[in-house]
Amino acid sequence: MNLQEKYSRLIKSKASAFGFQSCGISKADFLAEEAPRLEKWLRNGFHGKMGYMENHFDKRLDPRLLVEGARSVISLSYNYFPEKEQNPGNYKIAKYAYGEDYHDVIKEKLRHLVSELQDEVGEFGFRVFVDSAPVLEKAWARKSGIGWVGKNSNLITKQHGSFYFLAEIICDLDLSEDSPVTDHCGSCTRCIDACPTQAIVSDKIIDGSRCISYATIELKDQIPDSFKDKMEDWMFGCDICQNVCPWNRFSAPTLEEKFRPKPAIIDFTKQDWKEITQEIFSSVFKGSAVKRTKFAGLKRNLDFLSE
What we know:
This protein is α+β, with helices and mostly antiparallel strands. It has one domain (1-307). The protein is built from twelve helices and ten strands. A four-stranded antiparallel sheet has the order 1-2-7-4, sandwiched between helices. It has a two-stranded parallel ribbon with strand order 3-10. A two-stranded antiparallel sheet has the order 5-6. It starts with a helix and ends with a helix.
């Protein structure tokens, strides 16, 4: 076994020990396939008012511009599927936001993982990413063989479905590359058919400006009337295209306690949400990804749903 293979096996073993569901490796190179797709997506205005998506175009496509001397992109996934879901007939929050903020939880795991690696292989240059920089994480995860990109543009695996976070370690270690897996969506169109706002405009192409997640999280203005009566009670994010995906029948509850639902998220009624105050918001969503929308944003969403 050469050094590349030895280090690659070590990294995957460490990733598993830290609770990551999958780990794959690809060469840090220019994403030639993705460049025209990203350019067309932006040109079509599918990013809506997410102006930041237009920034750092080159960095999104070339990890060597993010980490000097980068040779490998290590892609990882971490399960967040909850054991319990919100009561039926309630205002809904996307499952990924049931527990503590994944940015903090996953990043801490990555830092400890890298620290242990460096104890064994010596110092190396790296950066860790958790949905927090111009990294096309689904493209790298697909390239590294973790899964395929489904028609809803989520990364899907046969073994686990799609309810997991993606993260990356971009480093200057020379590692053994993995190969992409094949697409197993076939002729299924359940995600496309189920989207109430027709945000999935074609296979793997999302018009972000039509997406319920965009309207309830990213959009800072008033929610457009075009979303009226189409939100299906989603007050933060949306899981519709994942809930209907047949591969998610294999989703198993996360073992990470920090991702387990906060009691209020499960137990609150519609009336409780309507009467939420800044104080209650701060208490319920302390250390949560929901704080991103702020109290005013959540109130805006609730007011729109109850009009």
